[in-house]
């Protein structure tokens, strides 16, 4: 499979509308060179631009949904379109990731379970999702997660129990904790014997420089590709069959003894 992780720069000198248009074009540019495209978390506003969340919140099928569905269809790719500040019809906001099939249909929506900020920011402005989300592609099963989720290994075990082989992380991870990002991406890959495709953002918004350094890790924990700090399209080719091979040759997942379901 060929994947493109588009590490978008989220800076305040670009409007949400301008960025939406630019990102649509970047996705279209992957036509013919990617099967799967992954975008960062909350790239319309910036993951730390808390004061924009309410104003820029959209219904699930709002302008970002429409632009990304079209971009997926135009490019003929599976698109993890990052996440949007979603306003539920009942009122609450969610940090919601959208995955589209190559014909532009919504394949899955994932409401971020672990909200960042302790007692402020996202943690108080957004409601928490409750459902784990996987997406079956012809070549692999995707497990969907968002940013701060990366710190919670039990979420990924839950995804593996649901068949996930390729773990996607869409993030707006700050530069000041970049070492955690790289370490945790490798840890999630090794412990779950799965690919990890983690797409962060670049630029600076709300005074928070972003780490960039999107990363792709194989089921043995080796880094297949890593971006720099700025806006970049990180392209990688990976073999989904290596997940089953790794799990067969080094069957650590089968030795789980804490009463959890073995992986399917
Ligand atoms: N947007 C986020 O979830 C940020 C997470 C983060 O900064 C951290 O886990 O560290």
UniProtKB/TrEMBL annotation:
<protein>
    <submittedName>
        <fullName>Carbon-nitrogen family hydrolase</fullName>
    </submittedName>
</protein>
<feature type="domain" description="CN hydrolase">
    <location>
        <begin position="1"/>
        <end position="240"/>
    </location>
</feature>
<dbReference type="InterPro" id="IPR001110">
    <property type="entry name" value="UPF0012_CS"/>
</dbReference>
<comment type="similarity">
    <text>Belongs to the carbon-nitrogen hydrolase superfamily. NIT1/NIT2 family.</text>
</comment>
<dbReference type="Pfam" id="PF00795">
    <property type="entry name" value="CN_hydrolase"/>
</dbReference>
<dbReference type="InterPro" id="IPR003010">
    <property type="entry name" value="C-N_Hydrolase"/>
</dbReference>
<keyword id="KW-0378">Hydrolase</keyword>
<dbReference type="GO" id="GO:0016787">
    <property type="term" value="F:hydrolase activity"/>
</dbReference>
<dbReference type="InterPro" id="IPR036526">
    <property type="entry name" value="C-N_Hydrolase_sf"/>
</dbReference>
